[in-house]
Amino acid sequence: MTATETRGSTTPLNRAGRQQLGPPLLAPAIAYGVCMLASVALSISAPRNTDSASKILDYTRAHVGLTEFVGFLQVAAAIPLAIWAATIYRRQRQLGVTAPGSAIGVAGGVLAAGAMTLLGVFTWASAAGATAFDPAVAALVANLSFSTGTAAFVPALGLLIAGLAVPGYFMKFAPRPFVWFALFVAAVSLVACFAMIAPALDFTLPIGRFGGLIAILVFSVTLPKDRSALRR
């Protein structure tokens, strides 16, 4: 085989290797952040699940369109989050990460995206059935929304961040101070699951949610594309 034939036969493989890196990490990260932050901002005045059932139902009936839109944003946020988790898993494999951390991370990303999807569905359903619900049903849906959107979503997001931070510590994917920050966010996020039985731990929920978003954005910028970039 001649040198020309060899080059011709390997070029498609090289092109395929470049394509396997997946989409730019920052694009789905920003899309997730925008949809998630918008849904939080639009829900700032909504009653908590611990408020009276009648207050929850009255608010939903008075803000049907807004509540439906918030539900849409929550479902929309889940899609780029799942894309980001799958892409980051592929990127870690490209960098030579073979430890279980990368698989744990993508599992956490899938669980987090699923919890965010359920949150959006429950939020939308609370508005769609507001005129037919009685206060007890409205309170039940509010509790379902809380449990999926906080106590289920945040720990799953913590798994995703841990699956990046632990390999990042050993392989130096990111600056060491940021890796310690990501490990802290992951640990707090995992503790957040106990907020379901210990309301005193509610403070862990925003730390995990917003700290996790910061970690996702920073990893999107700092994670090398391949092993040569990692060595440099």
Q: How many separate helices?
A: 9
- The average pLDDT is 84
How helix-rich are the residues, as a percent range?
over 70%
**Cα gyration radius (Å):** 21 Å
Structure description:
By secondary structure, this protein is mainly alpha-helical. The chain is 78% helix and 0% strand. The chain is built from nine helices and no strands. Helix 4 packs antiparallel against helix 5 (100-128) and helix 7 (176-191) packs antiparallel against helix 8 (204-222). The chain starts with a helix and ends with a helix. Mean pLDDT is 84; it is low at 1-19.
Walk me through the topology.
Layout: H1 3-19, H2 26-42, H3 53-62, H4 64-94, H5 100-128, H6 135-171, H7 176-191, H8 204-222, H9 227-231
Helix pairs in contact: 2-4, 2-8, 3-6, 4-5, 5-6, 6-7, 6-8, 7-8
Structural key phrases:
232 residues, mainly alpha, 9 helices, 78% helix, disordered N terminus
Entry summary:
The protein is mainly α and 232 residues long. Helices cover 78% and strands 0% of the residues.
